[in-house]
Specification:
There is one protein chain. By secondary structure, the protein is an alpha+beta fold. The chain has a domain of 81 residues: Arc Repressor Mutant, subunit A (Orthogonal Bundle). It is built from five helices and six strands. The chain has a three-stranded antiparallel beta sheet. Strands 5-4-6 form a three-stranded mixed beta sheet, with no helix packed on it. Strand 2 and strand 3 form a beta hairpin. Helix 4 crosses helix 5. The protein starts with a helix and ends in a 7-residue tail after the last strand. The structure holds zinc ion. Zinc ion (ZN) binds next to strand 4 and strand 5.
């Protein structure tokens, strides 16, 4: 497994391999490449299509189907969070600690805001035999004064 993208960052590479292993994922070449692109650029939200474009921008070849599968595996392993954006757009969030999102009116982009300070005065009764696992809050915005 020798790839320029990873050889130039041997430390980051081994860190990513450890992170995948700790999450119960075998560090395959494609997973390591995608993890490197995903997590090497700070906290961000991106779609499968955006990640696929970045793969191609790095002169790498991974199919969109594999990108989708890998993103879903990362979500299941707790490395990513899946966020529903505008319409049917699904975003993947590299920040997994508690926070909520605004959806911007211009481009449907997501902006983080802290979960603390948000108060739920009243929650509906839960179906019998369940408890709350986590709460997602996504606030969709529109330009001021627009109907
Ligand atoms: Zn976020």
């Amino acid at each position: 497994m020798t790839h320029g993208l990873m050889c130039s960052q041997p430390f980051v590479y081994s860190e990513l391999v450890q992170r995948l292993k700790k999450s119960g994922l075998r560090p395959t070449r494609q997973r390591v490449i995608l993890a490197n692109i995903l997590f090497g650029r700070g906290a961000r939200h991106l779609t499968a299509e955006q990640l696929h474009r970045e793969v191609r921008d790095n002169a790498l070849r991974i199919s969109l189907a594999t990108v989708y599968n890998t993103l879903n595996q990362f979500v299941d392993a707790g490395l990513l969070r899946e966020i529903q954006g505008q319409g049917q757009q699904t975003y993947f969030d590299t920040r997994t600690e508690d926070h909520f999102h605004f959806v911007l009116p211009q481009n449907g982009g997501l902006v983080d805001f802290p979960a603390h300070g948000v108060d739920f005065a009243k929650l509906p009764a839960l179906p019998p035999g369940t408890e709350i696992d986590r709460v997602e809050v996504t606030i969709h915005l529109k330009p001021l004064g627009k109907a």
